Structure formats: structure tokens, C-alpha cells
């Protein structure tokens, strides 16, 4: 297709603004000549196909589509068009400390955030982290993110979190939590109820709501029951870190199950170090897991559990957890998840002196988890997660004509998981609105995010002081002893190797 000859072909200089591209709000958009991963129930893949967006909906998917007069055309030749990705667990406020904890374990994360410095975050710091994280998400093609916002010490913090999410043209779910108080305390506060009715009373599929808290095995009296009852009363889902090594265990799952609080809308984050009995309880009640594979691998919640979840028939969604270590990049989530599952399968087989000759988990399934799986977990499957007429237009075009990695394009699912990266995200549409085009953000104020983040980092650096700041970033390294070697090896230039 030589789309340049079309009068409706969009173009313009990079960064020249939306008007220059012709992608003005309300104008229908058609992507032409893409490899389309529909992620519909049959996982249809269409080659050289078009997708038409009218208003906030996908209105047609197929070949050579007839489009309304004045439709803007995006040439997707050489690219992959897929549903917007969905991250079901992300502590967005922590993006203000991007990369700071790269060398942390989960223990160090808990000490820094829960015991030492989490309390220092003011409402404007929550706002700053959320604003940057929200922009980062849409830039990476993550059109829906759950903000697992567990440092809402006051409702001023909560308003700041919601304000940031509403400023950015992505789809978000605010999962309200507060690590500085017990869930049965903060959820009982009148101002919490007031916040929910103020900000979430009208139906709004751009900003959803969940309650976020954990059930550690500290008390067999199950005081969290009161918080679950608030969630039930409000009719909102609960998301909970479950199966985190030595932190949340089978005991929490048992208590939730016996009290009737495990439902199809419950999300179990990590779900790593659990027994078969707990997985059976999750599967039987229809709940979904949110896997943060890079987190589980690095921080130590337990081995990324897809190899077990698959055996129990539990729905999987993907997440990135926190930018204190990782970025809002579901390409890396897909890659890490597929690799971790296969690594485990090989390891288990080798332990039995066997060889895996055929992988069970396919790239196709992991793309499903990054899109449809997230929509199912969030109860949004009728809205988003696939490219089908009638669904909301959350669409990502992966295309990069300047990259040697975008051809040949032979195995589209494998290309998404193992070849492409966030730098290849060309165009992102959320709810029918173009938020990124030609590798440039549209309508997100990155300059403002930079300014508020700098203020927050300056403030936190001052609160900690230089010693605590540096010690927090560079934890001690345990001693590693090089093993005794039974062989000796010497080398002389005249004689060559000798032993
Ligand atoms: Zn988490």
C-alpha cells in the first residue's frame, strides 16, 4: 500500500502536535495493512488487515475496509497491531524512586518503605510518582494499569493519586491501600467512604476502583474480615499479595476461603509460594493471579508460578509491580514469564533425568495473558483486551521502520514476546483517543511530570540525608567464598599450559 498517496494519510513532523498529524479527536481512524493479533476467543491472526475505530469503539476488523469519509489513515505496513496491554498490579507512587532499589531484596524493600521512609511521602509525592508512572504506561502500550496504591496515609494522598491518574489519557484502576495502618482501620474511616463516594459514584470505565490489602498470618482471629466486608458492601474487588514467601501464606488463603471472601473478582498478586490446596481454592472460586515475574525472580516472593497455575486452571494476568526495580514494560513481563516457565519445566525434567522435547507454554499464551488475561482478571473483558468490533478502542501498533529487529516478521506472537520492545511502540490508542503516534506521546505533559518528580526526589533526598540515601541504594553484599579447586594450573610463555 502506498498510503502516502491517500488524501487522508496522516503524517506531519514528529512532535509537531496532534493537529499536525491529522489525528484530531473525534475523527475516525483506520490502521491499514497490519499483522493483526485480534486476541479474540479463537486467537485469529489476520495478515495485511485493517482495523477501524469510530468514536471510542472498534467498529470493524478485516481486509480492505470501507471507511467513513474523513477517516484518518495510519499505515501499519510491517507492523503488528494488538490490543492495549493490561498491567494488573503496579505501585505507581513508587515510580518517584525509579531504579533506586535495583539491588534490593523484598526484605530491604519492606524495611525501606514500610518501616523507614514510606511515611515520608506527602500527597504531592504520591501525585508525582503516579503522574510519571501513568505517562510511562501509555508510552509503553500499557493502556490499562491497576495502581496498587498502598501508601494512601490520608484521603489527601488518595485524591492526589486519583488526580494524577485522571490527568493522563490512559485507563486506570485505583486499588486503594495503606501500609501505614491496618486494613480494618483505614477501611472503617468515614473519610475513606466519603472519598469513594466523591470520586467513584458515577460509572466510569476510565478509572475503576479496588481495595488493596494483604492477609498475613499474624492473627488467627482474621481481623481483615472487616475490610473484606467493606469491599463487599461497596461492591468492589479485593486485590491481595498472596503466596509471598514467609509473608502471606496458605493460612491467609484458608481464612479468606472459609469466610467466603474468595470470589471471581479477587486478584491474587504473585500467588507464588502456595500449596496445591491453596491453588485448588483459588481455582474453585474463579479468582485470577497477577504475576510479576521479574519481581518474583529478583525480590524473592517465590518461583514465578505459571507452571503451577497452568496445572490448576487458574487465570493469569501480568504485572510489573514497581519501578523501584523495573519499568512499566509488559514486553519484559512477557519475556520473563515465558522464560521462567520454560526454565522450570527443563529443571523439573532434568531432576528426573528426562529431556523436554516440546514446550507446553507458547508465546501466544503469554500475549493472551498480557492482554485478554488482564481484562478477564479485572472484569473488563467485555470492554477491552481484544481487537473485536464493539470493544473499546485500546490499540497498540508495534512498528519501527528504523529498526533491524522488525523484519522478517514470521511468528507474530514470538516477535512480540522475544523480539520487540517498548521502543518499537509506534502508536497507542486508548478509548478511541490517540495518545502516542510515530513514537511520540500525544497529550501527556512529560515536562510537568519531570518538574514534580524533581521536587519529590529533592525532598526525599533531604529527608533521608546523604548517608541513609546512599546506604538505602547500596545494600551490603554478603561474602561469597570461591570454592577450593582440586586442580592446579600454571602457564609459562615458553612451554604453554602445564599442570
Ligand atoms: Zn506488589
SSE map:
Elements: H1 18-21, E1 29-37, E2 45-54, E3 57-62, E4 72-75, E5 80-83, E6 85-90, H2 106-117, H3 123-139, E7 142-149, H4 155-167, E8 171-176, H5 183-186, H6 190-200, E9 207-212, H7 225-234, E10 238-242, H8 250-258, E11 267-270, H9 276-285, E12 288-291, H10 293-299, H11 306-312, E13 315-318, H12 330-351, H13 363-377, E14 395-398, H14 412-419, E15 425-430, E16 433-437, E17 440-441, H15 446-473, E18 490-492, E19 496-498
Parallel strand pairs: 1-4, 1-5, 6-7, 7-8, 8-9, 9-10, 10-11, 11-12, 12-13
Antiparallel strand pairs: 1-2, 2-3, 5-14, 14-15, 15-16, 16-17, 18-19
Helix pairs in contact: 3-4, 3-15, 4-6, 8-9, 12-13, 13-14
Describe this structure in words.
Helix 3 (123-139) packs across helix 15 (446-473) and helix 4 packs parallel to helix 6 (190-200). Helices cover 35% and strands 20% of the residues. The strands form 3 sheets. Strands 1, 2, 3, 4, 5, 14, 15, 16 and 17 form a 9-stranded mixed sheet that branches. An 8-stranded parallel sheet has the order 6-7-8-9-10-11-12-13. With 499 residues, the chain is of the alpha/beta class. It binds zinc ion (ZN). Zinc ion binds at residues 89, 91, 148, 241, 269, 321.
